[in-house]
Write a structure and sequence with these properties.
The complex is a heterodimer of chains A (81) and B (160). With 81 residues, chain A is mostly helical. Chain A has 2 helices and no strands. Chain B is α+β, with helices and mostly antiparallel strands and 160 residues long. The longest helix of chain B has 43 residues. Chain B is rod-shaped, with a radius of gyration of 29 Å. The chains are: A mainly alpha (81), B alpha+beta (160). At the A-B interface, α1 and α2 of A face α1 of B. Bound molecules: FE2/S2 (inorganic) cluster.
């Protein structure tokens, strides 16, 4: 045992860049909500497809495309340093 | 600032950076999942899941005759598309895909009740319309057109 010598206390360091951390947290939360909606859209598309409602499938596919692009943009625009 | 303090500060900076990178990586993972869900929907729209009974085919003879209240089984439009046909009390002929729309068990014609029933989870379908009357099936049974000709009963081949 070295009595703690050489150890580094990192508690609290995640808030040393509070602006970046908050931005990333917000982005993660928004993308998580988008994914929840996408999960619903996938099940709805499968149900519509099996029920023969092909028109609804195309609408849901469009929604999925917009949702993915939004998530992609949110990620690409996230702060890097 | 001595050497040890400088090294310690440098290490702390790296750890801070790593923590932010981890969050960014997590965000990237979520975006990948989002892309996967988009790919899944594209797969659904491109038709990788088969729909029983919604395709049509050429007219084909499926039975010679059927008495009132009786049923017969056949395959239509393909050999892997089981179907059930019956002559109802008013002499009309109806046929449906016999693949239950819940979890794909075979539905049975119950003459006494005049309904189609799925034994797996007690799904019940109306024999006249194919609509769900009870149980977990989410959709009606797909209907198959039947036509009676002098030499037998034919399935499909366009509207009657
Ligand atoms: S498979 Fe028919 S009710 Fe479940």
């Amino acid at each position: 045992m070295n009595g703690g010598r050489g150890r580094i206390d990192v508690r609290g360091t995640s808030e040393d860049h509070p602006d970046i951390a908050a931005s990333l947290h917000a982005r993660i939360a928004i993308v998580a909500v988008i994914i929840t909606c996408q999960l619903w859209a996938l099940t709805a598309a499968l149900d519509a497809w099996l029920g023969g409602a092909t028109g609804a499938v195309w609408w849901l596919l469009g929604f999925q495309g917009v949702a993915f692009l939004s998530a992609l943009l949110i990620w690409l625009a996230s702060p890097r340093s | 600032m001595n050497e040890e303090t400088r090294a310690r500060r440098h290490l702390l900076d790296r750890i801070r950076e790593d923590r932010l990178v981890t969050r960014r990586d997590y965000l990237r993972l979520l975006v990948t999942v989002s892309g996967g869900l988009l790919a899944g929907t594209i797969a659904v729209a491109s038709g990788i899941f088969r729909r029983h009974g919604t395709e049509t085919g050429a007219a084909r003879k499926v039975a010679d005759s059927v008495a009132t209240g009786e049923s017969f089984t056949f395959s239509y439009p393909g050999p892997d598309d089981p179907a059930i046909g019956m002559r109802l009390d008013d002499d009309s002929l109806v046929a449906y895909s016999s693949v239950c729309t819940h979890l794909a068990c075979a539905v049975l014609w119950i003459k006494e009740s005049g309904k189609l029933e799925c034994p797996c989870h007690n799904g019940v379908f109306d024999a006249r319309s194919g609509d769900v009357l009870a149980g977990p099936p989410p959709r009606p049974l797909p209907k198959i057109e039947l036509r009676e000709r002098s030499d037998g009963i034919y399935a499909g081949g366009g509207s009657a």
